[in-house]
Amino acid sequence: MRSHYCGDLRKEHIGEEITLSGWVHRRRDHGGVIFLDVRDRQGIAQVVFDPDREESFALADSVRNEYVIEIKGLVRNRPEGTTNSDMPTGEIEVLGKELVILNKAETPPFQLDDHQNVSEDVRLRNRFIDLRRPDMQNKLRFRSKVTSEIRRFLDDNGFLDIETPILTRATPEGARDYLVPSRTHEGHFFALPQSPQLFKQLLMVSGFDRYYQVAKCFRDEDLRADRQPEFTQIDIETSFMDEEQIMGMTESMIRKLFSELKGVDLGEFPRMSYEEAMRRFGSDKPDLRIPLELVDVADLLQNIEFKVFAGPAKDPNGRVTALKVPGGASLTRKIIDEYTKYVSIYGAKGLAWIKVNELENGANGLQSPIVKFLGDDIAMQVVERVGAQNGDIIFFGADSAKIVSEALGALRIKVGIDMNLLEKEWAPLWVVDFPMFETNKDGSVSALHHPFTAPSCSPEELEANPLTALSRAYDMVLNGTELGGGSVRIHDQEMQKTVFRVLGITDEEAEEKFGFLLNALKYGAPPHGGLAFGLDRLIMLMTGTESIREVIAFPKTQSAACLLTDAPGVVGNTQLRELNIKLRKKDEV
């Protein structure tokens, strides 16, 4: 039906008779001449209808926004002074000769160029309209280019694209599973995969050597701007490669991706241990664009009478740290109060601060309600340690190490963005040397990543000192966002059993949940490892988008609902009976 896409027309097409098909983006009547901006997925072309052609002019006069039309016409130069340098097609226009209305359209629920004044709920409920916007079209086209580049890279490096099951069994991977009842196996349930983790390991045992998949994954967890209940992973696994080789290969892939599609040279990625990242930045995914760091000051505050600081300073599980913000002395009390409220989200009970006004006057040049509790000497030692100068402010965190790291780490990001302190556009790095385990509030131990991550020690050393053991895991971070994470996996049956024992998983429980994997490890499993990238987050970063929902065609809301299809929905009694399920009312015990 068409000879050209609207957005592909250029000066080299001048003089050609063409056919366009698309939607009416905008209609304008200028003194008896009708202009139609016609839109398709490639862009917009301006079409002009003169009254000389009465039939087509009358039709053009009747069309409205979002009508689907077909146009035949002649490409010509725009008149002098009417070119539009903001449009790729801005130097030309089409003189319309024939017009066919393929379909009429009701007035859409919102104007495509006025979406910013429309609530997200309205946009999601009418997503098929929202996706017509050039901005959304560009993002999804870019997403397609990213997946094509990744596939091309992995294909060229000998990886095989292999699909793994969607209906599988529940395994403990950190979040709640989405369950699917089985009609043929009464009382039994499938689980939708949180990741293809076990299957990709089995593919390595099967000898496929290099695997990848653009995989759908599902997690029933609390949502936020960069999470969805169903999301897409670039899943990669390989045999006979250690962590350095895996990191090197996947780093090359991401660097090539940015170079090809963004014209950006990310350079070589620096490495940072988990311990250093938490100590300096309060996060295992630090944003290195922001030149602010946390400085521990507990040793200076252990013997003061101010218990707010002294208590955590003496507690082996506590932390007292300072965050210097250059130029921060200009912050008003209102802004500081807002920051105090912000850190409370992370459990902080308050936010102490010192403004450095006149350093040459010693403690008298400091402004803060806490200086009198610290004493002049200690206050000046803190100022010296963090390297504060006139015009700076120092924020303090004092509580458990977890709360302080999370609260001050988050404050570091917020202040850095609020004060426009970002030093570069892109800041990638690898975070390595993660702990193998973490301690829960009840004293139990859980895997920091997952129970199939290989430790960097022997089974005997792991069982003797599990909380000091490091894993062979690695995370790729970009601008404070985890792009992907992975590890070398356990390929030895004895090591896997040891990890299960440390986690308190009995032999019977391990056999029930992971028997198929443990069985496979008996039959010559090769050394293997891999990494999974969050495709949605990657696209979000590369397009400079605030929310992950903006780069997914049909996303869920923050309550995990689809407003477009009204899912999840009610299921009829007939289907429930077939599944041997009876719904219980809320007031039933």
Write the layout of secondary structure elements.
Blueprint: E1 17-30, E2 33-40, E3 43-49, H1 54-62, E4 68-77, E5 92-103, H2 120-125, H3 127-130, H4 134-156, E6 160-161, E7 179-181, E8 189-191, H5 197-205, E9 210-218, E10 230-239, H6 243-262, E11 271-273, H7 274-281, E12 294-296, H8 298-301, H9 307-314, E13 318-325, H10 333-344, E14 352-356, E15 366-367, H11 371-374, H12 376-386, E16 393-400, H13 401-418, E17 428-432, E18 437-439, E19 445-447, H14 459-464, E20 473-478, E21 481-488, H15 493-502, H16 507-521, E22 528-534, H17 535-542, H18 573-578
Parallel strand pairs: 3-5, 6-9, 11-17
Antiparallel strand pairs: 1-2, 1-4, 2-3, 4-5, 7-8, 9-10, 10-22, 12-13, 13-16, 14-15, 14-16, 17-20, 18-19, 20-21, 21-22
